[in-house]
Structures are given as C-alpha cells and as structure tokens.
Specification:
There is one protein chain. The protein is mostly helical and 97 residues long. The protein has a two-stranded antiparallel ribbon with strand order 1-2. The chain is elongated. It has one domain. Helix 1 packs across helix 3 and helix 2 (32-53) packs antiparallel against helix 3. The relative contact order is 0.23. It is built from three helices and two strands; from the N terminus they run ααββα. The model has no long low-confidence stretch (mean pLDDT 84).
Length: 97
C-alpha cells in the first residue's frame, strides 16, 4: 500500500503548514511552537520507522531523501510544521500575544 497517494496532497499541505508554522513563530516569538513541532516530528518518526520496518506499509522511493531508506523526509517535515501550526493556532485562540 502506497500511503503517499492517500490523504491530503502532500506538497501543498506541507507548504501551507510551513507558512502557518513559521508565521506563528514570527508573530508569537515563543519557543513552545518549535518544541510542539519537534514533539510531533519525533513521535511520527518513531511510528513511521516502526511501521515500515514491520512492513505494515511502504513508501515509493520517489523522494529526494529517504530516512533509513524507508521514509520520505517530506512526511517528517509535514509533522514538524503541522505541530508548529497547531501551537500557533492555540496561541491565537487563547489570545496570547
């Protein structure tokens, strides 16, 4: 099963999450935004590498860089910037400036 073809269109989703995460970091200037993104990235990295090692799923080798030969770098970056965007959204909703 090729999971890159399921879910949101990855390059556009990655670009949007990157812009939102970096904009939130620029506006709020709080390191918790980066920390939240790194937490999401590390959690996903462990989950994805475990899943590809156990052959629960696989990715096509169309990426520029594969982590451990099994995982496209775009997947990890998507989770990093999605975590950052989520933290920025929480700051926005709580009215923290």
């Amino acid at each position: 099963m090729d999971r890159l073809k399921k879910g949101p269109y990855n390059p556009i989703f990655l670009l949007v999450m990157t812009l939102v995460g970096l904009a939130g970091l620029a506006v709020y200037k709080n390191t918790i935004i980066i920390e939240t993104g790194v937490l999401g990235m590390v959690g996903n990295l462990i989950y994805e590498l475990r899943g590809t090692k156990n052959k629960d799923w696989k990715y096509s080798p169309a990426s520029l860089y594969m982590i451990a030969g099994r995982l496209p770098i775009e997947v990890i970056l998507t989770y990093l910037f999605t975590g950052m965007a989520a933290a920025a959204y929480v700051f926005f909703r709580l009215g923290i400036f």
